[in-house]
Write a structure and sequence with these properties.
alpha+beta; Bacterial polysaccharide co-polymerase-like; 4 domains; 4-stranded antiparallel β-sheet; two-stranded antiparallel ribbon; 13 helices; rod-shaped
Length: 447
């Protein structure tokens, strides 16, 4: 083995140490040196000395390079390690101790009031199996309403409603020296909303649709009262949403009913005005009577013409009987012509001129009005049926707030979690300190 030589500035000091240990070890025999080297009794290394003696014997000396280097290393890093220890005490130990003391002796007790409820629908849907009876929760229909309710509880509107009934600055004022968990007076709305969201917690289970409300306060009775008020406002919101949805569903059907009713009213008024002008209830029945009258006149005319022909064979033209028969025939023919004119004009091109006077024109006008009236009645009946169906559907789809666990009254403070918060603070400080130290050594090694 060769003698270990250092080119560093501390080489002179190491040579002095080597000479000192060499002078101490000359008194020992060669076998003792070999035994100590094999057994490893100390941290010193064995190295052969060059032949510098006149007798030519091999001299061994022991160089405690490890101890010398260790002392020089401690001297170079003593300040750095001291700074690390000081930073650990300043940024981890002392803040963790203060946080633990604050949590244990200063932080005020907080009581919570919990309640469970859900948004349900009265719509009844059939299921085909037993599993569907249990999985048929109305979460599919009320999922959006549940999210709306969660946002409403954590919203500024709910905070404003609560402030109208309760003095939140007095309820959540700092207790003693606990200013960390208390609410300062005169804070802006944004800070109050952040504090409200810390004191009110809402958990929602998607599978069952159940929401759990938890309200914290420094007094158990106050937390229960606030939780009850929050549930009341939530129920009002759900009822308003249900009423709005119901009105939206019924509004279209009600509009259709109003249109059909107005149309039917106009059709009935038109028929009544026609009857007032024509002075007949049904022109069809009048036409039937006119046809019967024309048939009777034609029968009389035929009979009188037969009597006239018979009288002419027996009497002259100037006899009274023949003149009477001629007069009667002429009268019946005039009456027959008038009745035929009432039934129809007999002219295809002049229908528009006599449409208001003859029976055919009145029948045509009446049929148009009657068709409109019948169609309006059917449309009105259909709109009423649609309105009734829409009302049934709207009633079946109404939402309501089902509260199955009323707000509880705590008897023991559950918050703040003193030991857990202390541990989390210490863990966070330790993590931040470790990251800082590792970053420092990483930068130092790279530079």
């Amino acid at each position: 083995m060769a003698i270990i030589k250092n080119a560093a500035p501390t080489a002179a000091r190491k040579d002095l140490a080597v000479d000192r240990f060499m002078n101490q070890d000359l008194a020992k025999s060669k076998s003792v040196h070999l035994l100590e080297g094999l057994l490893g009794n100390d941290d010193r290394m064995l190295a052969p000395m060059p032949r510098t003696k006149p007798d030519g014997r091999n001299k061994f000396h022991k160089i405690i390079t490890q101890e010398v280097e260790k002392r020089s290393w401690l001297g170079s890093i003593r300040l750095r390690h001291a700074m690390i220890v000081v930073s650990f005490l300043a940024f981890v130990v002392i803040p963790a101790v203060f946080a633990s003391l604050y949590m244990i002796f200063v932080a005020a007790d907080q009581y919570h009031s919990s309640s469970s409820f859900s948004v349900r629908s009265i719509e009844a849907a059939g299921t085909s199996d037993i599993l569907g009876m249990f999985t048929q929760a109305s979460t599919g229909n009320t999922l959006s309403d549940s999210y709306i309710l969660i946002d409403f509880i954590r919203s500024e509107r709910m905070l404003a409603e609560v402030e109208k009934k309760f003095d939140l600055e007095k309820i959540y004022a700092a207790r003693g020296l606990d200013y960390f968990y208390g609410m300062a007076s005169g804070e802006p709305v944004e800070d109050k909303l952040a504090y409200w969201r810390n004191m009110v917690d809402v958990n929602f289970d998607h599978a069952s649709g159940i929401m759990q409300l938890q309200v914290k306060a420094f007094d158990p009775l106050q937390s229960q009262e606030i939780a009850k008020f929050v549930i009341e406002q939530s129920e009002i919101l759900v009822n308003n949403l249900s009423a709005s949805a119901r009105d939206g569903v019924l509004q279209g059907a009600q509009d259709e009913v109003l249109l059909a009713e107005n149309r039917l009213t106009k059709a009935r008024v038109a028929v009544r005005e026609y009857r007032d002008v024509s002075q007949e209830v049904d022109p069809v029945e009048g036409a039937k009577l006119a046809a019967q009258l024309i048939g009777g006149l034609e029968a009389q005319l035929v009979q009188m013409n037969a009597d006239l022909a018979t009288a002419r064979t027996q009497m002259g033209e100037d006899t009274p009987r023949v003149r009477v028969l001629k007069a009667r025939i002429s009268s019946v023919e005039e009456q027959l012509t008038g009745e035929r004119q009432r039934l129809g004009s007999g002219n295809a091109s002049g229908g528009s001129q006599s449409a208001s006077g003859d029976v055919a024109g009145r029948i045509q006008q009446y049929e148009v009005l009657e068709t409109e009236r019948e169609f309006a009645e059917r449309a009105y009946t259909a709109s009423l049926a649609s309105l009734e169906k829409a009302r049934i559907d709207a009633n079946n789809k109404q939402r309501y707030l089902a509260v199955f666990i009323e707000p509880t009254l705590s008897q023991m403070a559950q918050y703040p979690a003193r030991f857990l918060n202390s541990f989390l603070v210490m863990l966070g400080l330790l993590f931040a300190w470790a990251v800082f130290v590792m970053g420092y050594y990483n930068i130092r090694d790279r530079t």
